[in-house]
Design brief:
The chain is 66% helix and 3% strand. It has seven helices and two strands. It has a two-stranded antiparallel ribbon. The chain is elongated.
Length: 196
Amino acid sequence: MAFTREFLKGLNIEGDNLEKIMTEYGKSHTESAELQKKVEDLTSQNETLTGQIKERDGQLKTLSKSVGDNEELKTQIKSLQDSNKQTATEYQAKLAEQSKNFKIDSALRDAKARNPKAVKALLDLDKVSVDGDNLVGFKDQLEAVKKDNDYMFESGKPNESTKQGVKVVTGGNPGGNGGGEPSIVQRIAQRMTGGE
């Protein structure tokens, strides 16, 4: 089901309320698209760099076989292999950090943080780790931040103004006591027609 203006108009939501809802929906849709783009970019980078590392390792093995007993070249090859291992380790650490940040951003969005960057600043991210798809040490910190700074999160409760419905009154005096007294309009009409 598409979340469209026509759908909301069908629910009798119009004017400023319609525009506010569509603006908020647009924000969340844009955030999701941006996060998906980041994931795709990181995946592409990962594939490219993994391919480059495999290619270098293959070249080093080939060079190592053709060297024979030349100690100087063996030392250079060993140095290159160590450098490649270090680069691969640093790259994996960078990917892990980006994955952790992505999971934290997603969790903050799911927790309805009004400003995820501000909430993130209140968390001790060094104490948060990733275990598969789970964030370890995150939930307790988030609950503490929510408890101390609940204004930073959307409550999920509807506004008071949306709880009250519109009261439609047909004829009569809406503020009257319902005791059969004529409304002010009826009294004026009686005076104009000559009745009292």
